[in-house]
């Protein structure tokens, strides 16, 4: 059901999977859209369908966010378009191979997209959001942010970046009206798996969620005011305990003296 106009949402990786569902759901919630991905034809088809179904304005930007010039065009849009109220940093690629079987150039390309593009687009969006007194940033991380042993380690590391960066954004921006939401999906049935080297049909079906259910849960988490949403996690108390453990570490992470268990006498340090 359509609601009142909420400004433009710029969604990266909108041509398929999770990003395409976000686009459709955000349009139904009252956003006009700017859809970004490489495949212009798929973007255009989706844009036409969403516009026809929702009556919202849907623009597309065909861009390879791993390429500097293309990324700069999307950054310019975020800096210059004052009607953008929401940025969904969703574009990303994964890998399933371990280090010894991985191509180092593909690892670098993954960092360029999952880390560098997400960071640059956020830096492009934030000053305008702060100036206008509001905005929402939705960062799509992954459960591998906290379980990097599950898949390729560079992929896990890139998603740990997304979680840590989001924690810092929340810390710096929540008093400036900017909402930060980070989503940690588990296995979700999209093209991601085929591209990452393991078709989704090869996963145990009991660990795989549909993209529609994943996004609907994530948007419900956003509505609940969650900072982190883990769509699969049955009991949110488990995440809260994990976060409480992290918070408990903070006062002791930087001190004059090494911990007693290392047996280093202060004068020798
Ligand atoms: P997907 O269906 O493969 O979608 C990836 C999207 O990113 C596509 O729209 C793709 O479009 C775009 N993209 C890829 N490379 C790009 C580039 N260089 N520049 C611009 N756009 C690019 O996979 P998905 O599952 O929806 O993935 C979306 C996000 O969810 C990713 O960040 C992924 O890490 C995360 N995630 C997925 C899962 C899962 O199990 N599926 C789990 C946790 C997290 P083009 O090919 O047209 O560029």
Brief write-up:
With 269 residues, the chain is of the alpha/beta class.
Task: Give a structural overview.
The chain starts with 7 loop residues before the first strand and ends in a 20-residue tail after the last helix. The mean pLDDT is 96. It has a single domain, classed as NAD(P)-binding Rossmann-like Domain (Rossmann fold). With 269 residues, it is of the alpha/beta class. The longest helix has 28 residues. Strands 3-2-1-4-5-6-9 form a seven-stranded parallel sheet, with helices on both faces. The chain has a two-stranded parallel ribbon with strand order 7-8. The structure holds NADP nicotinamide-adenine-dinucleotide phosphate. NADP nicotinamide-adenine-dinucleotide phosphate binds next to helix 1 and helix 6.
Note the quaternary state here: single chain
Q: What percent of residues adopt helix (DSSP H or I)?
A: 40-55%
What shape does the CA trace take?
globular
- Poorly predicted regions: none
Q: How many H/I helices?
A: 8
Which class of secondary structure composition applies to the elements? alpha/beta
Distance between the termini: 65 Å
Task: Estimate the mean pLDDT confidence.
Answer: 96
The hetero molecules present are: NADP nicotinamide-adenine-dinucleotide phosphate
* Helix and strand sequence: EHEHEHEHEHEEHEHEH
Largest sheet: 7 strands, parallel
């Amino acid at each position: 059901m359509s609601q009142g106009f909420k400004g433009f949402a710029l969604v990266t990786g909108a041509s398929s999977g999770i990003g395409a569902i976000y686009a459709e759901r955000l349009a139904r919630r009252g956003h006009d859209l700017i859809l970004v991905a490489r495949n212009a034809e798929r973007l255009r088809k989706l844009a036409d369908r969403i516009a026809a179904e929702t009556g919202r304005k849907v623009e597309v930007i065909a861009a390879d966010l791993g390429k500097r010039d293309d990324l700069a065009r999307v950054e310019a849009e975020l800096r210059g378009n004052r009607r953008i109220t929401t940025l969904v940093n969703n574009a990303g690629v994964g890998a399933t191979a371990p280090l010894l079987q991985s191509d180092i150039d593909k690892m670098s390309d993954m960092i360029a997209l999952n880390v560098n593009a997400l960071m640059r687009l956020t830096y492009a969006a934030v000053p305008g959001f702060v100036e206008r007194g509001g905005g929402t940033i939705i960062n799509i991380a992954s459960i591998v942010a906290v379980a990097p042993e599950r898949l390729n380690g560079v992929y896990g590391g890139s998603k740990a970046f997304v979680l840590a960066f989001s924690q810092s954004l929340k810390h710096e921006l929540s008093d400036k009206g900017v909402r930060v939401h980070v989503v940690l999906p588990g296995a979700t049935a999209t093209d991601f798996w085929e591209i990452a080297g393991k078709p989704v049909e090869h996963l145990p079906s009991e660990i795989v969620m549909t993209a529609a259910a994943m996004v609907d849960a994530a948007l419900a988490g956003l509505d609940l005011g969650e900072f982190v949403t883990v769509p699969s996690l049955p009991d949110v108390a488990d995440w809260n305990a994990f976060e409480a453990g992290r918070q408990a570490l903070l006062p002791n992470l930087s001190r004059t003296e090494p911990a007693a268990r290392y047996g280093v006498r202060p004068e020798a340090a």
